[in-house]
Amino acid sequence: MKKLILLAAVAMPLMASAQYRSEVWSPDNGDGTYTNPVINADYSDPDVCVGASGEDFYLTASSFNCIPGLPILHSKDLVNWEIINHAIRVLPPVDRYNQPQHGNGVWAPSIRYNEYNQTYYIYWGDPDLGVFVVTAKDPAGQWTEPQCVIEGKGMIDTTPLWDDDGRCYLVNGWANSRCQFNSVLTVREMSADGMRQIGQPVIVFDGNGTPNRTAEGPKFYKRGEWYWIMCPAGGVPIGHQLAMRSKSPYGPYEWKVVLDEGKTGINGPHQGGWIHLKSGEDWFLHFQDKEAYGRVVWLEPVNWTDNWPTMGTNVKNYCGEPVLTYRKPNVGQACPVQNPVESDEFNTVTLGKQWQWHANYQQTFGMPTPNGVFRLFCHKQSEDFKNLWETGNLLLQKTPADNFTATTKLRLSAKDEGQYGGIIVMGMDYSSLVLRRVGDQFELQQITCKNADKGKPETVKPLATLKPTYKDKVAYQPAIHCDIFLRLHVMYIGGKNADGTNKHEASVRFAYSVDGKKFTDVGDAFTMRQGKWIGAKIGLMAAEPAGKKVRGWIDVDWFRVTK
Question: What is the pLDDT of residues 242-255, one digit of tens each?
Fold first, then answer.
């Protein structure tokens, strides 16, 4: 393990200001061009706004039940992004979200800067509870506690618009699973501070019975005298992007399809944020659904034809196709290459911003230390435990690329029989490579679960027997310890779906080492599968059977993502 980290308070700001460049995906080509996706990770339903300076851009995305929630990413050029914050530390109501609530929680947020009170707002719909908002003066600083501003079921995908006279309007979609209708968009007036409803909803668009079914994810803008709603329609995997315009926030709106797959093979390009630069250029950030990898973020140029925004290239009848490589936005300055952080040395007393839990954080999940390790305590399983789907203390992050390797160095400290921990790729199916205490030794195991979301049991495959690195010499609650390096390798395998569309599948293989130099491949290949509305995630886990009196744990020295 690493030596004691001294002067941690000094080290943290230095690390926070360092620019991180990924080994596995960086969209900036270094020659004035970029290659999509600009974020090759699951930032589902992205939205973006221009900051108060006009030179900073802030992005947020759906976080559902993952905590901390509402990630805040920052960029100077819309191509190079870094994770700077999360707007939600605890998701209310606490009793509900202290347990995993897969697919619930934060749906399709919007981030906006209100110039009238110099405040940033993020709105989102919790489909079971209502419309929520948080605010901050600085996106990298402290955000307010979530506040419900409209109670009720079914309201999702909410975006505010502050008009030229300071009045505030809110557009939203509707979830059929909660209110038994969808494909419609509604607009209502809010108080000028955006904190309460003062008008009733008006249906401004209806996609029912048309190719624009599943109209949702609306974003609200004003350009000159025109009100604009940008929204996806047609369904997540195969849909398209609509632009709608009207002279009134309440419509009627005329619309056009302005972006679709065309001949590119980039399925369902839609739902995101429109940005206007000081240079006069317009751009659009949206997602592509890559199944097991989640919904990754693309950047498209926007041009105007007859006062309609045409997105991408090869525009025909106002509708463009996604670009793969294109010139970078003109922001008036050269910006350094940087990417969202993936690797973590655990060298500070704060957890890296890439990590999330599957429920509200509780202290017994784990804690950072000043010793250069993160301690993850073994989750105490119930008597009727079936699988990890209902476990909150999984320390996970998004997959960062199509092909990558994640390696960790850790120590399992087991005080009792059956305590185990290791590396995992988690989704509705999952597989992990773990060390488990068996008697006075350790057994390396691959634990796999198919249809975890359906409550199916795990299968356990023994792989090797390892001796302890050392044993406690004290008589009181002694533990045996084992140091090990664990690795998972993700490889894109592609393929075609039954309807001929591209399949985004990946194969996962595991390996281990006792010295960090020579790795041995072990276990069976595993086909990565997405979670509920999110991509598969990678990370760390520790658990133990019910009835144990003293917890075991893993001390994680580092977690590194490489080619």
Answer: 999 999 999 999 99
Computed over every residue of the chain, the mean pLDDT equals 95
The alpha carbon of 406 is separated from its chain's Cα centroid by a whole number of angstroms, namely: 18
Candidates 22, 4, 7; CA nearest to 339 is 22
Nearest one of 367, 423, 375, 369 to 556, comparing CA atoms: 375
Written as six digits, the tokens of 9 are 């308070």
Q: Which residues pair with 313 in a beta bridge?
A: 321
Which residues lie closer than 8 Å to 518 by C-beta, 6 or more apart? Answer: none
What is the spatial distance between Cα 86 and Cα 142, in angstroms, rounded to a whole number?
Answer: 9
User: Which helix H or strand E contains 401, and what residues bound it?
Assistant: none
Query: For residue 245, how far is the Cα from the chain centroid?
Result: 31
Using CA atoms, how far apart are residues 433 and 463, in angstroms rounded to an integer? 9
Alpha-carbon distances of 179 from 91, 197, 343, 490, 558, rounded to whole Å: 23, 20, 42, 39, 46
Q: How far apart are the first and last CA of the chain?
A: 24
307-316 confidence digits (pLDDT tens):
999 999 999 9
Structure confidence at residue 498 (pLDDT) = 77
Question: How far apart, in whole angstroms, are the C-alpha atoms of residue 23 and residue 64?
Answer: 28
Tokens read off for 124:
């989102």
**Cis omega before residue 93 (within 30°)?**
yes
Question: Using CA atoms, how far apart are residues 170 and 193, in angstroms rounded to an integer?
Answer: 12
| Interatomic CA distance for residues 346 and 340, integer angstroms | 16
Residue 302 · residue 284 · CB < 8 Å:
yes
pLDDT at 495: 81
Cα 216 from Cα 444, distance rounded (Å): 46
Give the Å distances, CA to CA, from 52 to 40, 143, 155: 27, 16, 29
Residue 182 contacts residue 176 (beta carbons within 8 Å): yes
Q: Are 391 and 556 contacting, i.e. CB atoms less than 8 angstroms apart?
A: no
Compute the distance between CA of residue 53 and CA of residue 51 in angstroms, rounded to an integer: 5
What does each C-alpha distance from 473 to 466, 476, 480 come to in angstroms? 20, 9, 10
Order of strands across the sheet that contains 69-75: 47-50, 57-60, 69-75, 81-88
Q: Of 398, 448, 390, which is closest to residue 290 (Cα–Cα)? A: 398
Q: How far, in Å, CA of 215 to CA of 206, rounded?
A: 8
Distance CA 217, CA 107 (A): 9
Reference 158, options 168, 145, 143, 166; nearest CA is 168
* Report field, pTM of the whole predicted structure over 0.85: yes
Q: Say if strands 168-174 and 553-562 run parallel, antiparallel, or are unpaired.
A: unpaired
Which residue type, as a one-letter code, is found at position 391? T
Pairing of strands 379-380, 537-544: parallel
